[in-house]
Specification:
- With 369 residues, this protein is of the alpha/beta class.
- It has 14 helices and 15 strands.
- 35% of the residues lie in helices and 23% in strands.
- A hairpin with a 2-residue loop joins β11 and β12.
- The radius of gyration is 20 Å and the shape is globular.
- Bound molecules: nicotinamide-adenine-dinucleotide.
């Protein structure tokens, strides 16, 4: 297949990951442009990754006729507008998680892409993480009998950029930032069933001076067939990123630790360059991970999306996936506000951001049908 030409919007953490992941699968795609508003950043990014064109305004990138697919790695509050602009420019879209801030935005993004005849691909890399894919293959084969409980946890010491801590820009805290992965994971693992109800307990344990957002979140999701998903998230865990799953059925179980479980238990008195995302030190005992992007599934995800653009594969993660996650996020924040289980469908209108449903439970009451 001819290489899919990609333009990246954003030039920092996730943009680096996408650029490196595309380079890891050079037959299917190439990054040809990057856009980022801070003067000098897009240019530096382009030089670092060998990308020919760079812009400060993403709308210039959208006018580039060569670009077929736009990867959005900008803050959450910009996802909807950039997606809609990209669709109108005739570009396929890969949108980073979470899909957007509100359910109305999710609808508008899906509509804009459908109207323009372009794909809206939702970047949930856990659907491609080799260890988690293996766990799902075994479950689908029947290795664990009927799976009744799936747990996914993602925890670290807190985000790297200020905007994550500002709920006006992020839409919420650890649940919004990390829980979107676990919600998507449980839903995918259990066969994309309907969600029946959601119960969540949220709190701000250590970062109250910095954010209005939750920094500890436990979410329990009840699916149509009675199976349960449990999602645990934290911005209070030092020692590097923790991403793991547990799967239980009546005939067996499996456990997978994506990073520490694929690392080299290492002791160094002097330290070394890099161990794992969000680890603050490499001295003493650490767990340096190798092939970090591959272990997460990012190159595999981008290869799949490139093949979808060429019509060779059907998206396994799209705008509808992101909307399912968004509705569960709404229900989880509402549940924490109301102090009880929330049943789906749950579509309160006119909510400015998911976290408002926790802070102002009266808003949550108008969502249940
Ligand atoms: N899939 C994952 O595991 C994963 C990991 C990290 C981040 N993300 C998601 O990726 C997105 C970006 O996160 P990040 O960690 O890279 O944040 P970041 O702060 O490191 O980078 C954000 C980038 O967006 C750019 N930006 C800001 N305003 C812009 C605008 N108007 N137009 C174009 N670019 C603009 C910034 O200049 C910066 O380059 C978020 O939605 C985040 O949730 C996903």
């Amino acid at each position: 297949m001819t290489k899919v030409k990609i333009g990246i919007v954003g030039s920092r953490f996730q943009a680096d990951c996408i650029a490196a992941s595309v380079k890891a699968m050079p037959d299917e795609a190439e990054v040809v442009a990057v856009a980022s508003p801070t003067p000098g950043n897009a240019e530096a990014f382009a030089r670092r990754h060998g990308i020919p064109r760079f812009h400060t305004d993403y709308r210039e990138l959208l006018r580039d006729p060569a670009i077929e697919l736009v990867s959005i790695t900008a803050p959450n509050r910009l996802h909807a507008q950039i997606t809609i602009d990209a669709a109108r420019a005739g570009k396929h879209v890969v949108c980073e998680k979470p899909l957007c801030i509100t359910l109305e935005e999710a609808d508008a993004m899906i509509d804009a892409c459908r109207t323009a005849g372009v794909l809206l691909l939702y970047a949930e890399e856990l659907f491609f993480a080799p260890k988690y894919v293996k766990a799902k293959q075994m479950a689908d084969e029947g290795a664990f009998g009927r799976v009744h409980l799936v747990k996914q946890g993602e925890k670290h010491s807190g985000p790297h950029s200020d905007w994550f801590w500002d709920v006006e820009q992020s839409g919420g805290g650890a649940l919004m930032d990390l829980g979107c992965h676990g919600i998507a994971f449980c839903w995918w693992f259990l066969g994309k069933q309907k969600v029946k109800s959601v119960y969540a307990h949220l709190s701000t344990q250590t970062h109250g001076a910095r954010t209005q957002g939750d920094d500890e979140a436990i979410t329990i999701i009840e699916f149509e067939d009675g199976a349960i998903g449990v999602v645990e998230n934290s911005w209070n865990r030092p020692g590097g990123m923790d991403d793991s799953i547990e799967v239980f059925g009546d005939k067996g179980q499996t456990y997978a630790d994506l990073l520490m479980g694929n690392a080299l238990p290492t002791y160094s008195e002097v330290g070394f360059g890099y161990a794992v995302e969000k680890a603050s030190t490499t001295k003493g005992w650490t767990y340096p991970v190798y092939e970090e992007h591959w272990n997460y599934g990012f190159p595999q995800e981008m290869r799949h999306f490139a093949r979808c653009v060429r019509g060779e594969e059907t998206p396994i993660s799209d705008g509808e996936t992101g909307r399912v996650v968004q509705e569960v996020l709404y229900a989880a924040y509402a549940s924490a506000g109301l102090g009880r289980k929330v049943t789906l469908p749950f579509r309160p209108q006119g909510i400015a951001k998911p976290i408002d449903l926790w802070k102002r439970p009266e808003l949550a009451q108008r969502g249940e049908s």
